[in-house]
Amino acid sequence: MxxxxxxxxxxxxxxxxxxxxxxxxxxxxxxxxxxKILFDAGQGFAIAHNTEKLGINLKKLxxxxxxxxxxxxxxxxxxxxxxxxSTPIHxxxxxxxxxxxxxxxGTLHNIGIDPNLKNKFNFKYNESATxxxxxxxxxxxxxxxxxxxxxxxxxxxxxxxxxxxxxPDDQALYFKTAKGLIIxxxxxxxxxxxxxxxxxxxSNCTKVLAVIGGMHLKKASExxxxxxxxxxxxxxIKYLYANHCTGENFINLLIDTFSSARCQRLSTGxxxxxx
Length: 275
Ligand SMILES: [Zn+2]
Ligand SMILES: [Zn+2]
Known about the structure:
Blueprint: E1 5-11, E2 27-32, E3 35-39, H1 47-54, E4 63-65, H2 71-74, H3 81-84, E5 88-91, E6 100-102, E7 108-110, E8 122-125, E9 130-133, E10 136-138, E11 155-156, E12 173-177, E13 180-185, H4 192-203, E14 208-214, H5 222-235, E15 239-243, H6 248-258, E16 263-265, E17 271-274
Parallel strand pairs: 3-4, 4-5, 5-8, 13-14, 14-15, 15-16
Antiparallel strand pairs: 1-2, 1-17, 2-3, 6-7, 6-11, 9-10, 10-12, 12-13
One zinc ion binds next to helix 2.
């Protein structure tokens, strides 16, 4: 069989194509060596509409993988539950954790997922690295390891904001290909550099062909952004495709640093083919 990797953005925060809808969140459709994978489902306004427009048949998936338990990555499942009823949905068991975000104006926001989803789907839970289709793996929880990517968000698991949410369910999806690793990120709450280094360790592979997805740098400190950029340079990644929570300023900085031949912003409806 001919090897291939093709990723289509079902939805993310921006759209520049006719007839498609953007929403805050992420949903990717990935075709890899004949297998079809949905990675995240967005928050639910766009998935049914956009998959129909893009000609993506959600009934024919081999697997669904979930990056972490935030509404903007998971609640879309509920909008297409009839299509995904029998498809295995791979996720960390802690995606159902209650979750709140405390904003700087003092307001508290529920950012957890719809608890009713638990009984509607064929969930397959993983806590450590797991191969979900041949050559395609979920990492399991990504450990915090470097000194600049630390959990400093105002995320809590209780309404009193006493217990910080350390995002134990945050995972990346990766593909081991002959040309190097392809790493697909949801939100990178545990850090994009932590994720890349963890995938390199898990896979015993040092070459990174591409890193794709949300890098969660929109509100990050200058210190974190500077260290992330330096690390990305050192990691010698061939292609970078950023979107969602990466932040427009950081995306532009990436394009300036790596050139548009190596780095692009991926918006709703965009498609990339690698290998
Ligand atoms: Zn998130
Ligand atoms: Zn997100």
